[in-house]
Design brief:
There is one protein chain. It is globular, with a radius of gyration of 18 Å. It has helices spanning about 1-15, 50-60, 100-110, 135-150, 175-180, 185-200; strands at about 40-45, 65-70, 85-95, 120, 125, 130-135, 160-165, 170. It is built from six helices and eight strands. Strands 7-6-1-3-2-8 form a six-stranded mixed beta sheet. Strands 4-5 form a two-stranded antiparallel ribbon. The longest helix is centred in the C-terminal third of the chain and has 17 residues, at about 185-200. It is of the alpha+beta class. It has one domain: Peptide methionine sulphoxide reductase MsrA (Peptide Methionine Sulfoxide Reductase, Chain A).
């Protein structure tokens, strides 16, 4: 029996390492809703390096700002050197009269490898996992409907779906990183190509003029 159990464990571990996506993880905590401020709403997303995600959302019409930080875990006061169970995440501050939460969700999935588990592109590990956060039942339904549509198209969605709890703002030197360091190697080799790929899929949402 022990041998059979060991073999089963090896098979399951091998399957996970081969990139087969587990079922979407649903978090049962009660979500915390962030109140609107000066007509601006806030949404929270994680999908790989927060430099990339910040650049993508800040290029979207109706988005006032995207802030890099950490979310999705339980540890307190995460930092870049030690964010433990948190993922690199972004707070997206947007005008709901210009861009809807539904469109932000569409952008989220259009700007990443939907099926990559625990990472995006060259960035791998739990810190880079994809998490999409909801603050209320309406947002949760939008996310679930989108995932259902993607699943119907044949995608194995890797993103976790979690009730939003808290966002920890990242260090100052991470903010607007792509904008301030356009010639840095990672920005040139990873961030800009990722933005271009997204922009080619949803050119209608990009601020004008906006070019890389």
């Amino acid at each position: 029996m022990k041998l059979l159990s060991a073999l089963l464990f090896i098979i399951l571990a091998s399957t996970c390492n081969d990139g087969v996506t587990p079922e979407v993880v649903q978090n049962e905590q009660t979500p915390i809703e962030v109140l609107s401020q000066d007509g601006m709403e806030r949404a929270y997303f994680a999908s790989g390096c927060f430099w990339c995600v910040e650049e993508i959302y800040e290029s979207v019409e109706g988005v006032n700002e995207a802030i890099s930080g950490y979310s999705g875990g339980n540890s307190k006061n995460p930092s870049y050197r030690n964010h433990a169970d948190h993922a690199e995440a972004n707070e997206v501050i947007y005008d709901p009269t210009i861009v809807s939460f539904k469109t932000l969700v569409d952008i989220y999935f259009a700007s990443q490898n939907i099926e990559q588990v625990n990472g995006q592109g060259p960035d791998n590990g739990k810190s880079y996992r994809s998490i999409i956060f909801y603050q209320n039942d309406a947002q949760k339904k939008i996310i679930e409907d989108k995932i259902a549509a993607l699943t119907k198209e044949g995608y194995k969605v890797a993103a976790e779906v979690k009730a939003f709890q808290k966002f920890w703002v990242g260090e100052d030197y991470h903010q607007d990183y792509a904008k301030l360091h356009p010639n840095q190697g990672y920005i040139q080799g990873v961030s800009i190509p990722r933005w271009r790929k997204f922009a080619s899929k949803m050119p209608e949402v990009i601020k004008k003029p906006m070019n890389h």
